[in-house]
Design goal:
The protein has about 270 residues and is an alpha/beta fold. The protein is about 40% helix and about 15% strand. β1, α1 (about 20-25) and β2 (about 30-35) form a beta-alpha-beta unit. α3 runs parallel beside α4 (about 115-135), α4 (about 115-135) packs across α5 and α7 runs parallel beside α8 (about 225-235).
Length: about 270
């Protein structure tokens, strides 16, 4: 049965970030995720998680100057020092938050840089990062992202991400690098969601959802999420499902999809 995590970076925009923890708990969420948490004191975030009986299940490693267009460095040659510093910061935060997953961003490919060079850089960085993640008890995630929302991002397709993870597993003997499968991005780039879910189930470490094409609630748009949630259960997916969408109105107004799912599965709101 899917375990839904509210994404506090996209949901509850009607509140300040630190007030979103309480809002998520009031709507029945027990788990949360976030994109960027590094601007806030770690101990304050830990206190909010404890106060509201929440678990943080995913966050992004530092990825540089987002406003200036940076999106991480894991696949960028010559940026290894920045990558490992961001990983070090993220692992320290994961320890404080007891967070099991860290999303590692691959980066925007500079014009003229060969894709194969970036691929090898990403594999080498992940091979070197894997023992650190294993020691910390953390799974590192890489995510294919659609080029419409993030032009130039290195990783776009599920097959490429899973092949990279497989190479890291073969070279290190460690199963700590997995794929963050965002159905929103996957639908835009390649579709065929249910088949890809089944094909890649063993390599998926985390799933995210949003409606397509506008990234609103999952009951708005072209994806049949009720069917996909059933397939997750049938395939034995036991991880979290991150709700990384932008509410069309207020967050609470848009939660009918979750209330309906809870009612059908006899799950109380709190």
């Amino acid at each position: 049965m899917p375990r839904f995590a509210a994404n506090l970076s996209t949901m509850y925009g009607e509140h300040t970030f630190l007030d979103r923890f309480a809002a998520a708990r009031a709507d029945g969420f027990q788990d949360v995720e976030a994109q960027w948490i590094h601007d806030y004191p770690a101990q304050e975030l830990r206190r909010l998680l404890d106060t509201h009986r929440l678990s943080l299940v995913l966050f992004n490693a530092p990825a540089g100057d987002i406003a200036a267009g940076e999106r991480g460095w894991a696949a960028l040659p010559g940026k290894q020092e920045k990558f490992f510093r961001s990983l070090e910061i993220a692992l320290e935060l994961a320890h404080v938050m007891a967070c099991p997953h860290i999303h590692i961003l691959s980066g925007i490919v500079p014009e003229g840089l060969a894709a194969q060079v970036c691929r090898q850089t990403l594999i080498e960085n992940l091979c070197n990062a894997a023992p650190l993640a294993a020691k910390a008890g953390v799974t590192l995630l890489i995510e294919p992202i659609n080029p419409r929302d993030m032009p130039g991002y290195f990783l776009n397709r599920q097959a490429d991400a899973h092949a990279i993870c497989q190479q890291v597993r073969e070279r290190t003997g460690l199963d700590v690098i997995k794929v963050q499968m965002d159905f929103y991005h996957c639908q835009i780039v390649e579709g065929n969601l249910a088949t890809k879910l089944e094909l890649y189930m063993n390599g998926i470490g985390h799933i995210q959802i949003a409606g397509v094409p506008d990234r609103h609630e999952p009951n708005i748009g072209e994806i049949n999420y009720s069917y996909l949630f059933r397939r997750m259960d049938e395939l034995g997916y036991s991880g979290w499902v991150g709700c990384e969408y932008w509410p069309k109105k207020s967050t609470r107004e848009g939660l009918d999809w979750l209330k309906d799912w809870r009612a059908r599965n006899c799950i109380p709101d709190n």
